Amino acid sequence: VLEGQFSKYYEMATKMPGKTGDDLLSILESRLDNVVYRLGWASSRAEARQLVRHNHFTLNGHKANIPSILLKAGDVIEAKGTDKVKAMAEINASKPVAKWLEINKETLVGKVIELPSREDIDLDVEEHLIVELYSK
Questions:
Q1: What is the pTM of this model?
Q2: Are 95 and 135 a contacting pair, CB within 8 Å?
Q3: d(Cα 47, Cα 53) in Å, to the nearest integer?
Q4: Which of 5, 21, 33, 35 could disulfide-pair with 127, CB 3.0 to 4.6 Å?
C-alpha cells in the first residue's frame, strides 16, 4: 500500500466508530489481495496481488482484478479453475484460515463471514503509533 492510499484508509478509519487504529487494521485486512492470502491461495501478499491482477478470482460472481477492493461481510470470492491457485491451495491446505473467513477447499470458494476485529489480526503492529503519526 502506497502512502496516498494509506492516508485515504486512515481518513476512512477516523470516520468509523471505535478505535481508529483497530479500524485501520480492519480496513487493511479486508482488502481483496489480503483475503486471497489469508485463504491460503497465495504464499505471500505480493503473489496474492499479482494473482488478483491477472484475473484469477471472481467476487460475488463478477470479475475482480483490483487488489485494493475492500470486502464486506457476506462477500464470496471464487478462484477460477487455474492450476496456479489450485497448486497453492494444496500446498497451504494444512494452514489454518482466519476465523473471520470461511473456505471450501474442494471448490475453492471463500466467504467473508465478518470483518476482522483487532483480536483476529495476528500482526505485530503498534497501531497507536500509526494513529499518532497520521493525526498530526
A1: 0.89
A2: no
A3: 10
A4: 21
Length of the chain equals 136
SS3 content of the chain, % helix, strand, coil (to 5): 45, 15, 45
State in Å, rounded, how far the first CA of the chain is from the last one: 20
Q: How many CA atoms lie within 13 A of 5 on its CB side?
A: 9
Count of CB atoms situated within 10 Å of the CB of 78? 18
Sheet of 62-63: strand order equals 62-63, 57-59, 76-79, 109-112, 101-104
Write out pLDDT tens, residues 57-115. 999 999 999 999 999 999 999 998 778 888 888 888 888 888 999 999 888 999 999 99
